[in-house]
Amino acid sequence: MNEGFFHRRLVRPLLHLLRQGATPEKLALSVALGIILGVFPMLGATTTLCAVAAFALRLNLPAIQMVNYFVFPLQLALLVPFFRLGEKLFRAPHLALSAAQIHDMMHANMGNAFRSLWATMWHAMVVWCLLAPLCAGALYAVLAPAFRGAGRRISARVSEAAG
Description:
Elements: H1 5-19, H2 24-38, H3 46-57, H4 61-70, H5 72-90, H6 99-108, H7 110-162
Helix pairs in contact: 1-4, 2-3, 2-4, 2-7, 3-4, 5-7, 6-7
């Protein structure tokens, strides 16, 4: 079977966690929070946020971090929209920067970039805080039934093989 990168590196490991005994609900919450925390509009903070969430909520740390790493391109793509929504919400001046420029600033000198972008990032984080619970709930509502179904299929295969 010719599997794509996404299936090999994300779907298969998540299904493997189900086979090892992870509950579909905990795995769905791990994936939903990995996505939501992974797009937090501050580069460099998501790994820590995901680890704290995993330990606090007793979630699957490998699953939440794997998803967090997969959504990094999405985090970059959403930086500017979060900035723009923050500008609108707070009626702040427009910051003329692209996601690539912000990424380069952060990698060149995180401290200087943080100081230069503090107000804009703070506004973006407030927007993220407003949207994150709704998006996390919606993701969980979709993922939990999908993982339950996958778990049932895995259990059925195990039963067939044992019987």
